[in-house]
């Protein structure tokens, strides 16, 4: 058996998230597995670094698969991308040893959430960003974002359906910055709970709209109750952009993605 690591870019609008679900529900994982299985002429199971929600996008989702099929790396790439739908693309592939695991060897994961703050909705960025038409207190939102850094119990910021055994996560950075009409939340942690980033963004947007003060975040943490933390932001603006591994694996680190993801801080 040979193990391959792959980097996947996808637009999640047409999918019910990454993970394979019941029959009739289209997922990114199942779509890729069908294509790779056809190329390998054997069943292929793809293991990813994380599980994205329905409608969420990725620019470099790292995954791996094992196969007995003998193909050159270029053959896997060309074959897969010629058969995958246009909203999923394998960006790179690398032959790995059995010590690599896309999920369990990952040391951190990073997301960006993009808000387009303007009076009128964008047409070309439909489903690629979240549009907020109301005026926001950006300075207050920037200050509030840092409250999520460090080690916290994120019980109030995970979905009721979250299957994680425990809600404590370490957030290395949680930064919000403005670039013209764009607001970008850049967050990196050792792991994420179901809806965690979207719930944090929802909290920041409510603060920006003057619904409560920054200090109320402490009350949300202390409550350890999802009902204490407000709305869940839409999936449209959320992107899985990076996964970090020990240097020994020497995985490619491509650019973050299109223009609205590469905006400088």
From TrEMBL:
Catalytic residues, chain numbering: 53 (nucleophile)
Segments forming domain Pseudouridine synthase I TruA alpha/beta: 9-104, 144-246
Keywords annotated in UniProt: Isomerase, tRNA processing
GO molecular function, one term: tRNA pseudouridine(38-40) synthase activity
Catalytic activity: uridine(38/39/40) in tRNA = pseudouridine(38/39/40) in tRNA
Main function: Formation of pseudouridine at positions 38, 39 and 40 in the anticodon stem and loop of transfer RNAs.
Protein family membership: Belongs to the tRNA pseudouridine synthase TruA family.
Summary of subunit composition and partner proteins: Homodimer.
EC top class, as a word: isomerase
EC number: 5.4.99.12
Protein name: tRNA pseudouridine synthase A
Gene that produces this protein: truA
CDD domains: PseudoU_synth_EcTruA
A GO biological process held by the record: tRNA pseudouridine synthesis
Residue numbers binding substrate: 111
SUPFAM superfamilies tied to this protein: Pseudouridine synthase
């Amino acid at each position: 058996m040979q193990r391959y690591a792959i980097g996947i870019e996808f637009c999640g609008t047409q999918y019910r998230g990454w993970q394979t679900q019941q029959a009739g529900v289209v997922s990114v994982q199942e779509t890729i597995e069908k294509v790779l299985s056809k190329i390998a002429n054997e069943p292929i199971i793809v293991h990813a670094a994380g599980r994205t929600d329905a409608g969420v996008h990725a620019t470099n989702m790292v995954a791996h698969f094992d196969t007995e099929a003998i193909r050159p790396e270029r053959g896997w790439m060309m074959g897969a991308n010629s058969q995958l739908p246009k909203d999923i693309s394998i960006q790179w592939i690398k032959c790995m040893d059995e010590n690599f695991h896309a999920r369990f060897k990952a040391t951190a994961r990073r997301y960006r959430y993009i808000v387009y703050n303007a009076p009128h909705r964008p047409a070309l960025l439909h489903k690629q960003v979240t549009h907020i038409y109301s005026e926001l207190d950006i300075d207050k939102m920037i200050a509030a974002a840092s409250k999520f850094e460090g080690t916290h119990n994120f019980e109030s910021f995970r979905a009721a359906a979250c299957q994680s055994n425990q809600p404590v996560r370490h957030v290395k950075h949680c930064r919000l910055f403005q670039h013209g009409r764009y607001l970008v939340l850049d967050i990196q942690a050792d792991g994420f709970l179901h809806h965690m980033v979207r719930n944090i963004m929802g909290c920041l947007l409510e603060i920006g709209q003057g619904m409560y003060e920054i200090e109320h975040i402490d009350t949300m943490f202390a409550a350890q109750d999802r009902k204490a933390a407000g709305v869940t932001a839409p999936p449209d603006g959320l992107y899985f952009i990076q996964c970090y591994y020990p240097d020994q694996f020497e995985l490619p680190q491509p650019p973050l993605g299109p223009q609205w993801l590469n905006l400088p801080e």
